[in-house]
Amino acid sequence: MEEFFTWIGQTLGQVIRFVVDLLTGFFANIGSAARGFLDGLSGALGISPSLISLVVLVIGLWLLWKGFRALMRRAILATLIWLLLGFVVLSWLIY
């Protein structure tokens, strides 16, 4: 009877170890994949891969999105303002 519970304990321990190793490998690869994506994105755009540059990029894209939405509402003046702001912010990054 003692050998049975030893076998169950070992099997459960191996399953837990497998799950932990699997999750560790998954999250390690997610980090390197995200780093590679951001390096590729910043390299293609010609910007530095710093956090500030990426935040400014997101803000610039958000301003362009606001301009597009204003265009869909046929607000021409708002469209021009949002697009101009978006292009100015993105021109700080991309040279």
Defining traits:
about 100 residues, mainly alpha, MFS transporter
How does this structure look, described?
- By secondary structure, the protein is an all-alpha fold.
- The chain is 88% helix and 0% strand.
- The chain is built from three helices and no strands.
- It has helices at 2-45, 51-72, 76-93.
- It starts with a helix and ends with a helix.
- The mean pLDDT is 90.
- The chain crosses the membrane at residues 18-38, 44-64, 76-94.
- This is MFS transporter.
- Keywords: Membrane, Transmembrane, Transmembrane helix.
In short:
The chain is mainly alpha-helical and 95 residues long.
User: In angstroms, what is the radius of gyration?
Assistant: 25 Å
The number of helical elements comes to 3
Give the H and E element order. Answer: HHH
What's the total number of strands?
0
Biggest sheet features: none
Our measurement of the CA-to-CA distance between the termini, rounded to an integer number of angstroms, reads: 74 Å
Shape verdict: elongated
Mean pLDDT: 90
What share of residues are in beta strands?
Answer: under 5%
Report helical residue fraction: over 70%
Class computed from helices, strands and strand pairing: mainly alpha
Low-confidence stretches: none
